[in-house]
Amino acid sequence: MPLTDITSAARPTLSERGPSPRPARLRVAVCCTAVAAAAALLSGCGSDSSGSSSKKPAGSASPSKSKSMDGMHGKAMGDPSATPANKIPDAEAVEGSFKLLDTRPPGMDEVKGTAWQAQGPKGTTVTVSLTGLKPGDTYMAHLHAQRCSADNGGEHFQFKKGGPAEPPNEIHLMFKADKSGKGMTTVNNKKKTGKKAVALVVHPHDAQDNRIACADFEF
Known about the structure:
- By secondary structure, the chain is of the alpha+beta class.
- 28% of the residues lie in helices and 26% in strands.
- The protein is built from four helices and eight strands.
- It has helices spanning 3-10, 14-17, 21-49, 55-74; strands at residues 92-100, 112-120, 123-131, 138-144, 172-176, 183-189, 199-204, 213-216.
- Strands 5-4-7-8-1-2-3-6 form an eight-stranded antiparallel sheet, with no helix packed on it.
- It is globular.
- The chain starts with a helix and ends with a strand.
């Protein structure tokens, strides 16, 4: 047999030796790629869902939500279905008619309504009833310590002057106008204002400096 044939027979052909090392290199490359991808994935998860990052935003969002919920629970902002102040048994109620203020935003020229404040066994109850509001919008009302003629009601009434500017140290009402532009709600506070809260001012929820109307209580 010619030498070339012997050499050719003794030497592994490319097809015989190629498949063995190449899959090995391929497997190594695939493994390295998989490890690198896994490491990158773990690194990304670590920044987004590890206890030091993703849980912190979740934790920070949750407490603020919980705090807000607690605030609504302990600092009532109104219940449209509650008994109105002027219908509470064994309570002395006063009422006031809303008058438009020059600070009202555009489109509020038709707003009118009545406010009631009652002192009874359960403390102070305040009811607001308005028409001419923008349907679907949310509004706020606060008891004030001055008459409407004095700087549009002046500052908020506070049980403890200089204390927190929120319930239960203040009396706030929040309500939403229905399709016809009517809004009504009632809120109760365990403390009695006596004759120190003399007015109720209403304004848009998103523009609290734009006081729409004010109602003086006649004691």
